[in-house]
Amino acid sequence: MHAWPASEVPALPGQGRDLRIHDTATGGPVTLDPGPVARIYVCGITPYDATHIGHAATYNAFDLVQRVWLDTKRQVHYVQNVTDVDDPLLERAERDGVDWAALAEQETQLFREDMTALRMLPPQQYIGAVEAIPGIVPLVERLRDLGAAYELEGDTYFSVEADPRFGQVSHLDAAAMRLLSAERGGDPERPGKKNPLDPMLWSAAREGEPSWDGGSLGRGRPGWHIECVAIALDHLGMGFDVQGGGSDLVFPHHEMGASHAQALTGEFPMAKAYVHAGMVALHGEKMSKSKGNLVFVSRLRQDGVDPAAIRLALLSHHYRADWEWTDQVLQDAVTRLGHWRAAVSRPDGPSAEALVDEIREALANDLDAPAALTAVDRWAVTQEQQGGTDTGAPGIVSRAVDALLGVAL
Q1: What confidence category does residue 49 fall into, taking pLDDT thresholds of 50, 70 and 90?
Q2: How many degrees, rounded to 5, is the angle at CA 251 between CA 88 and CA 292?
Q3: 111 closest CA partner among 50, 162, 60, 161
Q4: Most buried one in 31, 119, 289, 335, CB count within 10 A?
Q5: Domain's final residue, options 286, 314, 340
Q6: pLDDT tens, 62-99?
Q7: What is the overall mean pLDDT for the chain?
Q8: What residues have CB less than 8 Å from 146, skipping those under 6 apart?
Q9: SS3 of 299, please?
Q10: Residue 294 gets which letter from DSSP?
Q11: Which residues lie closer than 8 Å to 192 by C-beta, 6 or more apart?
């Protein structure tokens, strides 16, 4: 599966700072010190509907992570999956009377177009669950052989008790885990499971559903969590730098994925930091495909909204915060974009050296994009009210905003 085109990241004078970021697993900030190649895995979409603002906010956060690393002169190895076979996708295809594979490809392509418009840096590997099946099956078989998985009526489950560190990503109690498991794709009430929290590794073939050869597992399809584990381990290995996604993935997805990987390898941790973006609401409720309260990036673009303004709207909120999308949020971003473009269109201006330093410091401090935006606002106001004599300043500001914030002026 192919990703989307990469926009050029301008080179800036000097060098950025190492990233300090909030780690869900430890509950506090960690300073990441990757080697020459920083490794990041971000969980991708289940493509049964178009990209909404909640998705865009999540991928914007991890785009900033990449930009901070690139500014430190590191390379970035970024991997993202596409869950192109799963219950929600199959249910939507059946509801609409369309082929599930065609629906997945249609929505994945729209996602690519939205990411391109928003100048999100693409992953080096963009892997669908279906194409990952040949690598998933041996991992499930290995877990079974290790005694970390068991069969139940043809399905194969992971035993959470096989990982002594289970729970160290989310730090939730059993009752909270059980509730979230039921809400987020698990089946804690199924009789016969060793533990209600045990997640599916391999689902045996069901009538009317797609299935693949699972070797000794029989025909079927993979569970959600093992999909990401197989892709991450194949391309990044254990101990990669950041596992990313929305805060709704902390449990069960990232908790279960960590346990799968740790049981498979005997190593800890799967990722050095678990980083999660907040949820975006509309009309007082979290944007959700199941609720249908969505603002689509593609619809905004069709309505003539500049993608740079959409990106500024996302950047105006801290990535870990839960916030609400409103018409005013977008209008404020449109206004800000106009001010910035006017400021950098002049032939000279105030020195930009301190501004670049402020943007770098803000982003290195747990991706504080709102502080970075405020710094650019101050420079633009000074430019408007006082001007300056530095003929290189507008160009430097324009390149810094593009390189570090992903906004093309």
Answers
A1: confident
A2: 35
A3: 50
A4: 119
A5: 286
A6: 999 999 999 999 999 999 999 999 999 999 999 999 99
A7: 97
A8: 162, 263, 264
A9: helix
A10: -
A11: 152, 153
**Residue 2 falls within a domain, yes or no?**
no
**In the chain, how many domains are there?**
2
CB 121 within 8 A of CB 67: yes
CA–CA separation, 309 vs 307, rounded Å? 5
pLDDT at residue 311 in the model = 98
Compute φ and ψ for 264, nearest 5 degrees.
Answer: -70, -40
Domain interval for residue 82 = 20-286
Tell me how many helices (H) and strands (E) the chain has.
Answer: 13, 14
Tell me the angle at which helices 393-405 and 327-344 cross, rounded to the nearest 10 degrees: 140
pLDDT tens digit string along 162-173? 999 999 999 999
The beta strand positions in 3-144, using DSSP E, are 20-23, 28-31, 37-42, 75-82, 125-128
DSSP 14-54: S---PPEEEETTTTEEEE----SEEEEEE-----SS--BHH
β pairing state of 271-277 and 240-246: parallel
**What's this model's pTM, rounded to 2 decimal places?**
0.96
Domain membership of residue 377 (yes or no) is: yes
Look-up of token digits 């801290």: 318
CATH of the domain at 334: 1.20.120.640
369: part of which helix (H) or strand (E)? helix 369-385
